[in-house]
Amino acid sequence: MKDICGNINSIKDIINSIKNASSAKLTDILPVEVIAVTKTFPYTAVLEALKCGIKHIGESRIQEALPKFGRLGENLDGITKHFIGHLQSNKAKKAVENFDLIHSLDSLDLAEDISRHAKNINKIQNCLIEIKVSGEASKSGVAPEKAEEFYSQCLKLPNILIKGLMTITPVLENPEDARIYFKRVYDLFCGLKKDNADFNILSMGMSGDYKTAVEEGANMVRIGSAVFGERDYGNK
Q: What's the CA gap between 236 and 233, in Å, rounded?
């Protein structure tokens, strides 16, 4: 049996120690939230994490998430559900219906689709703009130099609320090498925030580099394997 509770407590202790040692960041207005990335892990593991105090879960595939949500049922009451994967427009309706925060807003067409679907169910959909910090073809997102213009366009859509930024760094062996990317997105966040109290989330860092991300201002980290361990649960 994986020590999920022990893993979660260890992660939270590490984050607290970093925050206590670090100089204040603009993102310190909110505590650092741990999003347990539950994609590929069975509902039994997710249920264990919820029992251990996790309040945020992240999924990147609609078709995997919805059956899992169904099995978890009322255990998801009070839990914030995050969509963290690349979102295609044909899946926007389901994402709006089932997720509280969409991390991967990366085009005006998608933003318009999300706003339209949200309006149909009388919802204001919280979103993060995904920033593309590398030249990797496999990565999605808005180029940093285009982020201000894109943010301004999104502000005109009635049923979307932009809550901040998200980024995914290139795959790097040394977490320290991710620091330059985190710094760049933090600086971009500060430039866009201005006096907007709603713009307060910076989602950066995963299992391998969340410590560096928190040092550089992340107040949401997306952590899968460091919470659940390796993926050898079978189909339970």
A: 7
Give per-residue pLDDT as tens, 179-219: 999 999 999 999 999 889 999 999 999 999 999 999 999 99
| Residue 105 belongs to a domain | yes
101's enclosing H/E stretch is: strand 101-105
pLDDT digits (tens, 9 = 90+) for 15-26: 999 988 877 788
Q: Which two tokens stand for residue 185?
A: 């997105």
In a domain, 236, yes or no: no
Number of domains composing the chain: 1
SS3 236: coil
CA angle, residues 113, 163, 26, in degrees to nearest 5:
155
Q: Quick check: 235 pLDDT over 60?
A: no
Rg (CA), the chain: 17
Please give the Cα distance from 1 to 4 (Å, whole number): 9
